[in-house]
Amino acid sequence: MSEVFATTGTIAAIATAVVPQQGSVGIVRVSGSEAMALAQTLFHAPGRQVWESHRILYGYIRHPQTQQLVDEALLLIMKAPRSYTREDVVEFHCHGGIMAVQQVLQLCLENGARLAQPGEFTLRAFLNGRLDLTQAEGIADLVGAKSPQAAQTALAGLQGKLAHPIRQLRANCLDILAEIEARIDFEEDLPPLDDKAIISEIEKIAAEITRLLATKDKGELLRTGLKVAIVGRPNVGKSSLLNAWSRSDRAIVTDLPGTTRDVVESQLVVGGIPVQVLDTAGIRETTDQVEKIGVERSRRAANAADLVLLTIDASAGWTEGDQEIYEQVQHRPLILVINKIDLVEESERKTLQSQIPNPNSKIVTAAAQNQGIDALETAILELVKAEKVQAADMDLAINQRQAAALTQAKISLEQVQTTIVQQLPLDFWTIDLRGAIQALGEITGEELTESVLDRIFSKFCIGK
Question: What is the pTM for the complete model shown?
Answer without folding.
Answer: 0.73
